[in-house]
Structure formats: structure tokens, C-alpha cells
Request: fold
Amino acid sequence: MKPTKLLALSIFLASYLVQAQGVEGFPDPTQQQTYTMHRSSSREVTGANADYRTITPGETLTILDVDGPGRLSHIWFTLNAQESYHLKRIVLRMYWDGESTPSVETPIGDFFGLGTGQYYLWSSPVLSVGNDRSLNSYFQMPYAKHARITVTNEGKQTLSNLYWNIDYRQETKPLPSGTLYFHAQYRQAQPNRGWVSDWYDNGDPRVNFRRNLDGKDNYTWFEAKGHGQFIGITMSVLQNQDGWWGEGNERFEVDEGAVPTIVGTGSEDYFLGAWDFGSPQSFPLHGSPVVGQEVAGSRSSVYRFHLDSPIPFTKSMKASIEHGHANARSDNFYSVAYWYQAEPHMPFPPLPEMSERIPALQAVGGPGNAKQPHKEGDPQPR
Reply:
């Protein structure tokens, strides 16, 4: 198939998937819409060309503050900042209907899947990042009474240029009864604490034959109380140890059932890849836009969206994944979970302090991380 035809097919599939998703996507263009379209932007209000805002260290800027009923349909950002890892230092928060705690709280880079703190190209129906540092979200974000979005500079240097366009619909009728609200939550483990440090590779029998039937010490993506549906995850990894980081199974526990609803077969399997991903790839509902070498210090990023079948819960839900088989490995994980639910939501874990969010290699032992050299025939880490 020619590249142009392949691109056209990808765009069609992406549009179809968004239109078909359970959280309501693109409106039907053959039917007359009744909402009015509006935009919050960083434009220069005097009409001049300085269409950006500057945010000093410690400053919070409100970039959207509107009454409902309405719905955010698209968000675009681009940033110009000299500080390293500014994607980790700038925090995005969203509040619906006057709530005191945010329904979205995440470093701005992680919200767009850039969990390594670096820019890279990837695309999906709901999130995309261009090679020009453009950040786009198409998540549908309804609100009955009010919507507020803030950006906080928790870095040590000024964010020189923040550009944004936020497109939202003002509805003429109240939201349908039972409308669910968008949520996104950041979590990290720097590091995940594996249960063993004196191992030599993933094939070590102590690791390979370990059982983990209850998900104890898994890395938690998110927990929720109430009713709603989980729609996806973006996750990045900084390896502290040599070998393949993905020998870990996902686990979904829904409505406090005795048996988990879903238990997987391996990290790349959940993210719909295979054999350690092989090379960077980006598809509408899954991908691995960053694939590092399997050595300490390498970075990887992956994503999966359940737009084909959101995972519903009526009372509660917990989603997690092992860090290495049976949680043996001690790599760093950084993730954002995306879901819709009725308010109120559970309190989020406190956002880690800014310096703790910067990806950094950790001294955890194990292959590629131990102080002692590996001796031939000695089952010790090198």
C-alpha cells in the first residue's frame, strides 16, 4: 500500500474510532448542531502579536474559567522553556463544577504521554504530539456548571512562552442525566522496589518461578470509587537494571470482586505489542513510541486506549501492573491513567515534589546496577 493511502486509511480509522467511542466523540456533521463554539487562547488581547503568556517560578495561571453547561472538545499547547525537564515541572490541573480538588492533576508532559520528560512524536485519536512540540488532546470533557483549568510553574526558571487554544462548546440544554466526567491521574515509582537485588537476569530461577496471584506490590495505575469506566494509560520507564523491563502482567480488579476481571500475560502484551516491541511504533489505540535498549539507563514509553471497549465499574476499580515478573525488578515507572466517572471522585495521591519527578537512575542493585563485578559462573549481579 502506498504511504499516502496508508495515511488516509489511518486518519479514517482514527476518526471512526473516536466517533464510535463510548464517551461520545465527534458530532455527526450531517446533523445541525445546536451548541455555540468558543475558544480560550493565549492571544494578545490588544490585537498585537505576542500571543503567549509567561509564567514565573511558583506562579499559577488560570487558562480557562467558564460556566456551563458545556464541553471541552480540543486542547492545544506548545511551550518554550529553557529549563531541562520543564515537561515534568509544569503542572496541569482541571476542575469541574466548582470542585475543590482537581479531576485532572499531572505534569503537563505526562498528560500528553511524554513521561520521560522529553519530546517525541506519537499519535492517537485522543492525544498526539508533533515533532514541532505541538501537544493536542481530543478527550471530550463535559461540565454541567463550570470548568476551570490552571497551569502552574513548579520549576526554578521562568516559562518564557506558553501558547494555548482550548475549544469548548456552550450547550443550549443541560447535560444528559448520568453524564460522566473526565479524569486523569499521574502516578510514579522512582523506583519500584523489587523484592530481590542479588539476581543476574530475568531468567534467574528465583525470579522466573516466583508466583504473584494477588497482585501484592504491583505498580498501581489508578484506583476509583463510584461508577464510571477506564479508557486508557500512558506510561514511561527508566530502567535501573539490565534486561527486559516488561516481564510484568496487568491486573484489573472491578467492583471488589474476589477474582480480578482481567489478568494479562506481559507488559508488551497489554500494550498490544510483542517481543519487547522491537522498534518504535504508533497506532490509533496502542503503541511504543520510545523503545530503549535493554540496559540500565534506557528509557521507553508506551500507551493503550480502550476506546473500543471502555472497562466499566459500578462500585470501584483498581488497575495495576507488575514491575518485572512477580515484581522482582526495580525500574522507575511514570504513568497517567485516563477515565470517566460520576463525581465525587476519590482523593488523588499527593503529587510528588517537583525534584522527585525528574527521571533519575536509582541505586537498586541487580544486573547492571550492582557495585561488584560479575564473575563467570557466579549467579550475582554485575
Observations:
- The longest helix spans residues 3-20.
- The helical segments are 3-20, 86-89, 108-111, 205-208, 267-270.
- The radius of gyration is 22 Å.
- DSSP finds five helices and 23 strands in the chain.
